[in-house]
Amino acid sequence: MSITFLIIAITSVTSFIAFSKHSLREDLLFWPYKIKREGQLYRFITHGALHADAMHLIFNMVSFYSFGIALEDYLFLSIFGEMSRALLAVLYVTAILVAVIPDYFKYQDKPYYRSLGASGAVSATVFAAITIQPKMPIQFIFIPYPIPGYLFGIGFLILSAALARKGTGNIGHNAHFWGSIYGIVFTYVAAKLFGGIDLLDYFLKSFVN
For the whole model, what pTM was predicted? Predict the structure, then answer.
C-alpha cells in the first residue's frame, strides 16, 4: 500500500473525528506546558494528525500528496530502491517531532500555547523533493510561470523565518521553517548513507552542465 495514501488516510480520519470531539483534540494537540509537567511525550507526534478545520486539512494533504507521491514513486525510488517507502514514512513522522522542538523550548512554561497540524512534516516532504531535484518547476494557480524549486525554497525559508520572528497569526511558521530544514538534512544524509550520492555536489554540477 502507498505510504502517501496511508498517511493521508490516518491524518484525515483522525482530524475529522477530532473536529467534533473536542476532548480528543485537547488530548492529542501539541502542548509544551503539559509535556514538561506531565510527561505527555506522545504529543510531540500526535498533534500532526490533527488540523484546525477542513480547509487546513485539505491544504496540507493536497500539498503532501503532490510531493509525497513524487518521492515515493520516483525521487526516493531512484535513490533508495525498495527502501523508498520506509524512508518516506520515517521522514514524515520524525519531521512532525523535529519541527516543533524549538517551540517546545520556547513555550514550555507558557500554558496558553498549543498547536496542531502536519505543516512541519509537509514542509519536510516538499523540501526533500527539492533537495533531490532542485530545478523542479513549482507552480501556483495565482502565478502563471513555474518557479525553480531551489528559488522557491530560498524564498519560502526567508518568508517563514521573517513571519516566525514577527510572531503574529495562528500559523506555525517555526514548524514550516524547521520542517523544511529537516527535510533538506534528512534527504542529504540518507542519500549519502544509503545511496552513495552527494546531492550537494549534484546540485552544483547541474549549473555547470
Answer: 0.91
